[in-house]
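Sample 3 of the quickstart, ligand NAP:
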Amino acid sequence: MFSLPEFFFPPGRRLLKSLRLENLPKPITWTKPRRLADFAGPLETSPSRGLFCKFKRSDPPLWLYSFRANMERTRRTASGLTYLEFWDFLERLQGGANEEVELKEHNASKFLKGLFDLEDKVAVVVGGTGVLCGAMAWGLWRAGCRVVLVGRHQDKAEAHFKEWETSPDEARFFKADATERDQVAKIIPAVTKWFGRLDIWINGVAINPPSPYLEIPDEEFEAILDTNLKAVHIACQAIGKHWIDRGQRGSIINMSSMAAIRPLSRVFVYSLSKSALWNLTQNLAREWADYGIRVNSLCPGFFPAEQNRRVLDKSRVRAILGHTPMKRFGEPEELIGATLLLASEKAGSFITGSNLIVDGGFSVTSI
Ligand SMILES: NC(=O)c1ccc[n+]([C@@H]2O[C@H](COP(=O)([O-])OP(=O)(O)OC[C@H]3O[C@@H](n4cnc5c(N)ncnc54)[C@H](OP(=O)(O)O)[C@@H]3O)[C@@H](O)[C@H]2O)c1
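Result:
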């Protein structure tokens, strides 16, 4: 596996089928490949991925479109060239050659890949052992991220990994109780040791006991706030500090709920915790925008899963479906598009402090 450099094409030329080398700005100096660890600069690098080549441009007409290619020798780069073709192209370029290089036609999948580029990013999904966040983690992994599922039950993570057919190079489990600060503090060093970086953090733990309001014991009240709110707060402090200390950008996605925007019957403390979480999300979005840290909520409507199974009796199911214009529950995979949008640095670049609702229309239904 090699990591190739950023390479630049003039704006407006992306749609060209071929690129004349004389159109490239000069001079471009090509320094010898060095180890990634030696490199400090604006280009993103991946210490786990071997060599890179560094290019310098002294002439600064404002560019354009850049890409980074992480690939095996046979895999095509974003330009449509194989590794060897691309390498050959760079060598000719270095030698001052002036010839035409075929670039594959720009197509929709390349456009989308560029827009949602998550290749090589690393995502921590707290609560990723569960149903919804497990599906979201799968989506991130399919989009090229390496993912770490955090939860208390390894067997649940293993079940996901088996289904995905993934390897520890791409997906791992970290055991932690998200309500315990000292356990959460160990997640970041472990993940950066495994994967060399950390870009996306999803907070998805929650519990939802359905006690009638007058019967809610203090212990239950505290347990819900601990899991649904304090755990997210602890995690945000840990990952926020990590990114701010390093001057690194990042994306936090907090799992919200319909209960955050309207008080849902039968889940009093859950509603309370989710609406406080929405408030925290907005506050952090404002505080950390300057650091390039985006903080958003993803707000699912109703998706049958483990934590809400006990609440979803027949009458409630009828009430929910009667209130949902699409007249069905959501499927966990239907959260992936929203997850990729919020996670992606490019597609989601101006999205912070938002509550992205995925609910089949539940929230817009009144009479
Ligand atoms: N399902 C829905 O309809 C729905 C709707 C709106 C919002 N949501 C939100 O979406 C998120 C995921 O919900 P889900 O339905 O997928 O729930 P889920 O299947 O129960 O997943 C939640 C996961 O959180 C983990 N967890 C709970 N307490 C933890 C703790 N103290 N430390 C570490 N991990 C803990 C559990 O994993 P371990 O057993 O491994 O600890 C569990 O697998 C939640 O925030 C929920 O509020 C769900």
